[in-house]
Amino acid sequence: MEARIQTAQTVDSKSDRAIAGTDPHPCRKPVGRPPRAGIDPVAVIQDFKAFLQGTFPELIRWFGELPDPRRQELCKYTGAHIWCQPLMTFLARFGSRNAYDQMRNSGQGPANIGEICGQGADDPRFGEHGPTVTCSDNAAHHARRVDPERVAEIPLKMIRKLLKRRLLDDCRLFDTRQVLVVDGSVQEKCRAGFEAGGKTARNGSGKTARYRYVLQVGLLGPAGIFLPVMHESMDMHDPIADKEDCEINAFVRLAVRLKTAFPRLSFCLVADALYAAKNIVEICESYGWKYVFTLKEGRQPSLWSEMLELLPLVPGNRLLLEQGKESSSRRDFRWVEQLLLGAKHSCNVILEGDITSESATLYAWITNFGHLTDERVLAISGAAGRERHRIEDHFNVQKNNGAGLEHVFCADPTASKNYYTLMQIAEILWQLFIKGWLKRLFEWARRATQQGLARALGEGLRNCRLPPKISPIGQLRFVT
User: Fold this and answer.
1) What residues contact residue 216 under an 8 Å CB cut-off, 6+ apart?
2) In angstroms, rounded to a whole number, what is the distance separating the alpha carbons of residues 99 and 93?
3) Sign of the Cα pseudo-torsion (130, 135, 141, 145, in order)
4) Which residues, in sequence order, are bridge partners of residue 220?
5) Closest alpha carbon to 278 in 303, 309, 253, 246
6) Coil, helix or strand for 46?
7) Distance (Å, rounded) from C-alpha 168 to C-alpha 428?
8) DSSP secondary structure, 378-399, as one string
9) Each residue of 70-119: pLDDT tens digit?
10) Contact, 345 vs 276, CB < 8 A?
11) Any bridge partners for residue 350, and if so which?
12) Is 112 helix (H, G, I), strand (E, B) or coil?
């Protein structure tokens, strides 16, 4: 041992004896990590009521103002109560009427539905047996007697309120245009032999089946949410020409309704290659709308050929973005302006090549946005063209995650339209509640799936008694 290193001192065991401490915890840490908090159904259902009262306190009144052809002195349930029955079916994602019927009157469900719809347990119409929830047959019978156009006014009122609160201002393209995405989908796969409104098709076994189609348009909101605004059913039939309805004809009708509902709002319409047609462009320009439509060679062959011929003549219309210093992926933009679409209209074409070490993808759009610069091309691609998948994700979630799109909730065409509208109302509530409230406040909500949160809403509705008074929430804030 070196001379500068101090030698260890011996310890006197008599003077430094062990003394029992007062700390009950062992010195060793417990094995494993501390468990994370799971989904809290009590918080989900209570916060949902607070969200409903703070964001859309008029929703129950809107339901109550819908036409009610019943004799009120013989009715046990209010109109708002009946409409809340299918609404909760979609919110909790039971997927079918029977699934909700099995639990609607179990536990605290009847009392909680009454607290939400405004028909509490003390309503004398319930009598001595206490509150109950109406069955799905009664709700479907009521839905087939109400004009679908009246029910379709409710999501418009909800969107108008969000616009008035300036909740969607940050989502505008170039700070001026609200981005609208439009697409069609199968609403219901009807039973074989069904004769009400719909289209006929042959399935794999050769049997005749009928489908209901719907054209949906919605706004792009914060944090990547999609808010349904308006829809048009594609079930009209021309007996003279013996032709079924199509998506383009449905959009012509929907565009008139959309312009009437929002006459002063500036829109940017985003759609697939089906809409890259002269008549659709004429509608957009006559209404003062901008558009970003997917371009395919087969849809507009002359436009595609002209674009390929002019592209080498404008070498300055190019933007190359590298995705990181060490990454081999890049985005290559090219664009050509003032191309003819038909005889009277001109448009601009934007090409984007998404190139990685494993694949190369080409995106192409036509647009009537002018004065294309690097910044404007990048904004059109990122905030409009590449965001068309939002409506496809919307349809996919409603088809495969329990909402029940494509399921036949009611064979009657009028009730079917009203049920689809209620599904979209539930989607607006769900997107705002989950991404504007729960995921911002609770860590367990950020880790949970939407199906898990929907099941928690159903469990809280059945097992947790809502207090009669809950403070409404304040401002919604979205975390990307």
Assistant:
1) 182, 183, 184, 185, 228, 230, 231, 391, 394, 395, 424
2) 9
3) positive
4) 226
5) 303
6) helix
7) 13
8) HHHHHHTGGGTHHHHHHHHHHH
9) 998 889 999 999 999 999 999 999 989 999 999 889 999 999 999 999 89
10) no
11) 335, 365
12) helix
Cα separation of 267 and 377, whole Å?
Answer: 17
Letter for the amino acid at 72? Answer: Q
- Tokens 């880790």 locate to 447
Question: Mind listing the pLDDT tens digit for each residue in 352-401?
Answer: 999 888 888 999 999 999 999 999 999 999 999 999 999 999 999 999 98
- Percent helix, percent strand, percent coil in the chain, to nearest 5: 40, 20, 40
Q: Identify whether the C-beta of residue 115 lies closer than 8 Å to the C-beta of residue 49.
A: yes
Q: Could you give the CA distance from residue 416 to residue 463 in angstroms, rounded to a whole number? A: 31
Beta bridge partners of 218: 181, 228
Helix (H, G, I), strand (E, B) or coil at 239: coil
Q: 382: Cβ–Cβ under 8 A, 6 or more apart, which residues?
A: none
Q: Residue 366's beta-bridge partner residues?
A: 293, 349
Distance of CA 457 to the CA centre of its chain: 18
Q: Within 13 Å and on the Cβ side, how many CA atoms surround 270? A: 24
Q: What pTM, to 2 d.p., does this model score?
A: 0.88
Amino acid letter, 390 = R
For 50, other C-beta atoms within 10 Å of its C-beta total: 17
